Amino acid sequence: MYQKEIKQSNENIVFHSIYFTENSFSIPDLTKITNMTFPTIKRVINEFLEKDIIKEWTLSTGGVGRRAVRYKYNPDFCYSIGVSIDEEKIKFIMINTVGKISQSKTVETTNEDFITFFEKNLKNFIVEIDPKHLSKVIGVGISIPGIYNKESHFLEFNNIDRYESSIIKELEKKIGLPIWVENEANMSILAEAIIGKHKVLTDFTVISINNKITCSTFHKFGNKSEDYFFKASRVHHMIVDYENKKKVGDCISFKVLKNKIMKAFPDIKTLDEFFSNKKYRESETGKKILNEYLNYMGIILKNLLFTYNPKKLIICGELSQYGNYLLDDILNIVYEKNHIFYRGRETISFSNFKGSSSIIGAALFPIVDNLM
User: Fold this and answer.
1) Domain 2-73's class?
2) Beta carbons of 237 and 249 less than 8 angstroms apart
């Protein structure tokens, strides 16, 4: 391995060690964690201080003689932009390195040429960022409901429009920032694996329920930061009702649920009103809509449990905003009496990101790829 590669690898290992702790640390602490020598850690620490990645915190207490200097990770040493795209809107956020959102914006899509529209609004969002933060932005991550095929050099922002992947390089030149693109389920996986409540798990599966249904699996196979992979699958088109020839997307997309509820209850303006008010949610019509929806969801969740046998199956996407109202009923449907799944009801949970997992994962992508 070349000296430069060794140096970079050492920095990545140290960064990975300090990123996942909120506590202060010393050079001796890091030598124990990483098994690196004191001079190597000292060199990396000095470079991190120059880059503002860490700050001197306090002098450690106790012991005899000179006390070791302690340091603390600075989550605001750089920022990243995240974008999520669907057929109705584009969302933009800017986060620090631990996922704290400092700026956000949503624009509704129009009939304008999509690439032109997207480029214009991305530039507008960048212009609106405070210059002192913009100077620290390291990249843009984009979450798409379609796929990004690097081997065949194409990407789909949806299931209709396909573009040559070269448009990403062109866009990078126009905005002056590197761009990462991935399927929204993979981006949700990234958020859950890096800063989510289940980040300690070595394998899990997510199903992202937005206007499109996507699924991804995560597996970590070593102790190094790069020792993991994730892979998305397009469950949106899987048949879930053979008799009526209904696909998963026809039955459990967020758009389907929203349209049924808004049509049945024309006096409400948002799903929040439906779920928070028992008058609607527990009415005969409300129960009928939810029962049909959750029964279809139960079918696909059972299939995912049988297929992947994950330690955790996390429901992400816009539907996760209403997980508190739906989880018990879903568990009762999936884990019926005498079920034969290897794991129990604790396997299924809703994401804590409340519909933002894919865009937060997108924003994390440049940080993870650059620094970990």
Assistant:
1) mainly alpha
2) yes
The vertex-41 CA angle with 37 and 45, nearest 5°, equals 170
Structure tokens at 238: 């899987």
Token pair belonging to 81:
């932009």
Task: Give residue limits of the domains in the chain.
Answer: 2-73, 79-187+357-371, 201-352
Give residue-wise pLDDT tens across range 71-114.
999 999 999 999 999 888 999 999 999 999 999 999 998 888 88
CATH 3.40.50.2000 fits 201-352, yes or no: no
- What tokens were used for 57? 């915190």
Residue positions counted in the chain: 372
Lowest-pLDDT choice from 12-21, 87-96, 217-226: 217-226
Q: What is the DSSP letter of 79?
A: E
208, 317 Cβ separation under 8 angstroms: yes
**CATH T-level topology, domain 79-187+357-371:** Nucleotidyltransferase; domain 5 (3.30.420)
Residue 90, CB-side half-sphere exposure with 13 Å CA sphere: 22
Residues 6+ apart with CB under 8 A from 302: 334
Dihedral of alpha carbons 320, 85, 20, 103, sign: negative
